[in-house]
Write a structure and sequence with these properties.
Oligomer: heterodimer
Largest sheet of chain B: 6 strands, mixed
Structural class of chain A: alpha/beta
Largest interface: A-B, 37 and 35 residues
Order of helices and strands of chain A: HHHEHEHEHHEHEHEHEHEHEE
Largest sheet of chain A: 8 strands, parallel, barrel
Helix content of chain B: 40-55%
CATH class of the domain at 22-49 and 56-233 in chain A: Alpha Beta
Shape of chain A: globular
Shape of chain B: globular
CATH class of chain B: Alpha Beta
Number of strands of chain A: 10
Distance between the termini of chain B: 67 Å
Strand content of chain A: 15-25%
Number of strands of chain B: 10
Strand content of chain B: 5-15%
Helix content of chain A: 40-55%
Distance between the termini of chain A: 37 Å
Number of helices of chain A: 12
CATH topology of chain B: TIM Barrel
CATH architecture of chain B: Alpha-Beta Barrel
Order of helices and strands of chain B: HHHEHEHEHHEHHEHEHEHEHHEEH
């Protein structure tokens, strides 16, 4: 796609609050002209968020580890990792995390864990969710829109169980398949609401066939353009690294997830995690704002 | 102002230093990218993106220059200092040629104990054994070092090395071609900005082609980054000897200077600016070695038309903390995924052919080779034939 009347039409639509059609999205997903796709996504992102980029410091802790040791005071979200074998173990992990977290939100587990716990405990999924919620779980860490069979039923069940500000993820879909997943995410939001964020880059990285830079930034841009009704498009800071994550900010992302909660600086102050993060945000022309695990901005 | 500049550049106008600075500081990142991409498309309308299969061999890490941004060098007398033997270098060439390589990129420290005869003998031995191999060797500061330690003029050093087999010169050691910066980086002594330019001018006039490089992200100002590009452009106007320009960011790990690395967006903006300013340099390389494969690939949208080298070995950047690795399969996949046509090239940027390895029929290479295995302290047999200048070097010869 070159700078053309088509591009100008799409840019005008994006800037004036119009929504691109599925055909437009499909064409953008197919073009190698990532700069045009990026410009459109950036325009939409700036209309929605201005120059603000949020980030959250997350303490990730295995369900069977000591939360007291693994959760630094700077963490704004406690994320339980791993897959407990039983609902009792999962509930205990949430309670332990919550005891350490105080008023900070606790998230964890993937949708497949919930299904497995339902099966092993012979309880309906809704009941499992209710028990985890009662124990203090405020968010599911992974709701992979590319890997769950009946997305509508899943989102409906989560909403009924009291989970809001949902964060949709992508498990491992290659770039070409992520476009459809983002259009489905937008449709889910239109139907059920309650989806706060989408993380369009895969949570599982194939070491033998890694995604390319084009794949990644285009996936971010398409997520922004295909799902303009989902407020937040995020990139995992630790998984994708400063360079790709920073470039993604110029392709439509507005949030950096999973920033290290430790601020130790063995290599000097300028290379401390938070300093590096803020430097990258500002060097890309944005302003940094810290948020908590529920997407509330707590400091700028 | 920026809009007018964008129109001018789109129409093919050459930018002044002040205009370049304005674009760098004020043009949105995508706009800079679009300008650079349009120039790339004008210069390379066939959508070919090239790469070379070669090996970056560092023949010695002993160096008297002591640049404070370098994590690779060891001082004279260090137990960790090494000089590669001719046989070791031959083995590396054999490995390179086995995977389709056609060039050796040979650079090293400023070792006072290697006289010009060592280089001449090495080059002759390489060319005698591998007549088709191209020797892309010795950056301007190394040539200057050989000139100084052998009290031979730069012109004569170049002539003698060409007679021995030198084919082209890498553009290393340029850092930022501004003496204020070079003094702060402690690399003014190895070559001032004028000296670097002069060596290149001699080389170009002697018929050699070379690349030009820029290491940014240390102490330079935006103005100095632009000044560097202007100096390269001016010499290119004069000689036309540069085949390509390569920019990379300072890698701070394990260096005396330390600090933080410039960001990925800064790299893409700097690259795009280089494409805009250097309207007389045909080829712009992506530095995946310092930026990683992903930003390396994105460089193709910001003006780059070359993915650099499928380098089987790299030591200098790796010593400073960068450990990215791409083999030919991955480079080719990156080029095709971005909508370009991959072709192998030589140092002159002549197309050699299609990729050698397209499919994953060999395991993915996850780590580049290094100059030597850890703990290998062997001293090459042939070194005893060459007189040493330093006390430590003389003692080493006596012990052999």
């Amino acid at each position: 796609m070159t700078r053309s009347s088509t591009f100008d039409r799409l840019l005008d639509q994006v800037q004036t609050g119009g929504r691109l059609s599925a055909d437009d999205i499909a064409q953008l997903a197919a073009t190698p002209d990532i700069l045009s796709v990026g410009m459109l996504a950036d325009a939409l992102r700036r209309r929605l968020h201005g120059t603000s980029v949020t980030y959250v410091r997350v303490a990730a802790c295995g369900f069977d580890a000591s939360f007291a040791r693994a959760v630094p005071p700077l963490a704004r979200e406690i994320r339980i990792t791993g897959s407990p074998a039983s609902l009792t173990t999962a509930r205990a992990a949430v309670e332990s995390a919550k005891a350490v977290a105080g008023d900070r939100p606790v998230s964890g587990f993937a949708w497949r864990d919930v299904e497995r716990l339902s099966s092993s405990s012979r309880m309906p999924v809704a009941r499992v969710l209710a028990e985890l919620r009662a124990a203090g779980l405020e968010g599911l860490a992974e709701i992979p829109v590319d890997a769950i069979e009946d997305e509508a039923a899943v989102i409906d069940t989560l909403r009924q169980a009291g989970f809001d500000r949902l964060r949709l993820t992508v498990s491992k879909a290659p770039g070409a398949e992520r476009t459809g997943a983002m259009l489905r995410a937008a449709a889910l939001q239109a139907r059920f609401g309650g989806i706060q964020a989408v993380a369009p880059l895969p949570t599982a990285i194939d070491a033998l066939r890694p995604a390319t830079g084009y794949d990644d930034v285009k996936a971010v841009a398409i997520a922004r353009l295909a799902a303009p009704n989902i407020p937040v498009v995020q990139v995992d800071w630790q998984r994708y690294g400063p360079k790709l994550a920073q470039v993604a900010l110029t392709f439509g992302a507005d949030d950096l997830d999973n920033v290290a909660a430790s601020d130790e600086a063995p290599d000097g102050r300028r290379r401390a995690p938070l300093e590096e993060l803020r430097r990258n945000i500002e060097a890309a022309g944005f302003t940094a704002a810290e948020r908590d695990g529920l997407f509330n901005v707590i400091s700028r | 102002m920026v809009d007018e500049l964008v129109r001018n550049v789109t129409d093919g106008a050459r930018v002044t230093a002040a205009e370049a600075l304005d674009l760098y500081r004020h043009a949105p990142t995508h706009v800079l990218g679009r300008l650079a991409d349009a120039i790339r498309a004008r210069k390379h309308p066939d959508r070919v993106v090239t790469y070379i299969i070669d090996r970056n061999v560092n023949y010695t890490n002993v160096c008297v220059a002591r640049c404070n941004f370098c994590a690779f060098y060891r001082p004279v007398g260090s137990a960790e200092g090494y000089v590669l033997g001719f046989e070791e270098i031959f083995r590396k060439i054999d490995e390179t040629m086995a995977v389709g390589g056609n060039q050796l990129l040979l650079q090293g420290g400023h070792n006072p104990d290697l006289p010009i005869a060592w280089y001449e003998d090495l080059f002759r031995a390489v060319k005698g054994r591998y007549p088709g191999l191209r020797l892309h060797a010795l950056s301007p500061p190394e040539i200057l070092h050989i000139s100084r330690t052998n009290t031979v003029s730069v012109r004569e050093v170049v002539a003698r090395l060409v007679a021995a087999g030198l084919d082209s010169i890498p553009g290393g050691g340029a850092e930022i071609l501004v003496d204020r910066v070079r003094k702060l980086l402690n690399c003014y002594g190895k070559a001032s900005a004028d000296e670097w330019i002069d060596v290149m001018r001699h080389a170009h006039r002697a018929g050699l082609r070379s690349t030009a490089t820029m290491m940014y992200g240390t102490v330079e100002t935006d103005e100095e980054r632009v000044e560097h590009m202007m100096r390269v452009r001016d010499l290119q106007d004069d000689t036309g000897g540069f085949t390509a320009f390569i920019a990379w960011s300072f890698q701070p790990e394990h260096t005396e200077r330390g600090g933080a690395e410039a960001t990925g967006v800064d790299y893409l903006r700097t690259l795009a600016l280089a494409r805009i300013v250097l309207d007389n340099v045909d080829n712009l390389q992506a530095s995946w070695v310092t930026q990683g494969g992903k930003v390396g690939q994105l460089s193709l949208a910001f003006g780059a038309n070359d993915m650099g080298s499928v380098m089987l070995e790299e030591n200098v950047v790796r010593a400073a903390g960068a450990s990215y690795c791409m083999d030919e399969v991955e480079i080719v996949a990156s080029i095709e995924d971005a909508g370009f046509v991959p072709k192998r090239r030589n140092m002159q940027y002549e197309i050699l052919g299609d990729p050698v390895f397209r499919a994953r029929d060999v395991p993915r290479v996850l780590e580049l080779a290094t100059a030597r295995a850890a703990g290998d302290t062997s001293v090459p047999e042939e070194l005893r034939q060459y007189p040493a200048r330093s006390r430590a070097g003389k003692q080493l010869r006596l012990a052999q």
